[in-house]
Amino acid sequence: MNEKKYETLLNIQTSGEDKYHTSAKYHRYEPTPYDVLETLFNHYQLTKNDHIVDFGCGKGRLNFYIHHQFQAYVTGIEMNETYYQDAIHNQLNYQKKYPLKEEKIKFLCCYAEEYNIDPLDNKFYFFNPFSIQILRKVIEKILISLEEHPRCVELIFYYPSDDYLYYLEHKTAFSLIHNIPLPNHHKNHRERFLVYQLSYI
């Protein structure tokens, strides 16, 4: 299904270029393509009890896609006020078409490193949203949450940078459990999904 059909299906508008990018630490907004999401979830499944956090959610594409496909809980974290308002507007339109029986979709306007990890959060999505310095701070908060509330968590990376991978593989106890290459992976090694797992159970 192409992008226009997905946007119509979900009753949202998440396309468009980033007109507000001004930070070196926080990268330009770019929604994950729908065909890429299809590839990911053909190989990686969620349940309605999962709690996913999307860091740098922009206008909320991933959040609505995941909820529609799996009825999971999804939290979008976005530092840009304009994109946050776009996400809220999309949420209203999505819920007109798919009324929610409980609050399973929410958005917060804050910096990623300021988000307080919920004890139920168990999966975290990153599409290269910020610098390695910010990623370290986010991972540290996830690890503190794991110590306080032992559980199994997974980190999902699309188009991960080499800095991200070095840090995860050499500076953390996370283990790689899924390597999902995309069609252009042979041309660009970053064209893939990587899923890392850590359990404190």
From TrEMBL:
The keyword Iron does not apply. One of its GO terms (molecular function) is methyltransferase activity. Residues 37-97 form the Methyltransferase domain. Keywords: Methyltransferase, Transferase. It holds the Pfam family Methyltransf_32. Gene3D superfamilies: Vaccinia Virus protein VP39. The keyword Methyltransferase applies. InterPro entries: Methyltranfer_dom, SAM-dependent_MTases_sf. One of its GO terms (biological process) is methylation. This is Methyltransferase.
